[in-house]
Amino acid sequence: MSIDVVDLREFYATPLGKAAEASLMRVINSTLEIKPDCVVAGLGYATPILRNLDIKNTIALMPARQGVVHWPVGGDAKTVLVHDDELPLASDSVDVLVMLHVLENAIEPSDVLSEVWRVLAPEGKVVIIVSNRRGMWSRFEHTPFGNGRPFSRGQLRKLLRHSKLTPLMWLNALHFPPFKREAWLRIGGIIESVVKRISPPFSGVIIVEATKRLYQNLPSNPKKVKRSLVPVLVPQNGVTRAGKDEQGS
Asked: What is the pLDDT of residue 204?
């Protein structure tokens, strides 16, 4: 069962969610270089990353089974309701695609990554953030990282290879325990700086930066009919699912 978009939004508004967002951004900002004129898309619930990037050309693609919320707050909507394995984007149209809270809940993760390959521009990059099977966060259901199917690095590497995506860099984040008490959160940064040096395999998430491989063709897709969803522009503070307005129900 996919996690609900309302739960995701509420989690990232909590002190623990804000600490998780800060941990992810420390890693991403230290490694990922994005030019100001790049086209950047987020898939899943990637707004905690997108809102920290100084990029104008952004779009947040939110899976239908998860639901969609208005983003950015106070601005024109940049969110679209989609099927994660059939994105309403042209081929070779995205320079950087950020994936957060999507593969763990995907019905067929390989189909999602094959679609990511299609929409990425030549030499385009995808940043995939998944819950670490060996980490503590995957064992706590009060965070979205404890929902769905966690991954090991080996499992993720196999998926990337199948989808013709080449890993460039493997990273880790969330090296502190997912405890709600503020006392733990106040020292979370200290804990993280120590733990990431001595036990990176047990981090809360695995982050991989990969690039589109061009020297092999994708396997033909046996599906004859593609579903399509009309992009949904959500009223500010609205929450929508495929065919359903949560605020109106």
From this structure: 93
pTM of this prediction?
A: 0.83
Contact 60, 80 (CB under 8 A): yes
Dihedral sign from CA coordinates of 149, 159, 122, 112? negative
Query: What is the token pair recorded at 220?
Result: 């033909």
Query: Considering the chain, what is the average pLDDT of its residues?
Result: 85
The three-state secondary structure class of 107 is coil
Strands 94-100, 120-131: parallel, antiparallel or unpaired by DSSP? parallel
Which residues have CB under 8 Å from 247's CB, separation 6+? Answer: 238, 239
Mean pLDDT computed over 27-49: 93
Burial 137-152 (b: 16+ CB within 10 A, else e): bbebeebbbbbbebbe
Contact 102, 117 (CB under 8 A): no
CA distances, 201 to each of 51, 146, 170 (Å): 28, 17, 11
Considering the domain boundaries, does residue 84 fall inside one? Answer: yes
Of residues 86 and 219, more confidently modeled: 86
CATH value at residue 40: 3.40.50.150
- State both tokens at 90: 């042209």
Q: Which residues touch 18 (CB under 8 Å, ≥6 apart)?
A: 12
Asked whether the beta carbons of 101 and 191 are under 8 A apart, the reply is no
Distance CA 232, CA 79 (A): 7
* Enclosing domain of residue 188: 5-213
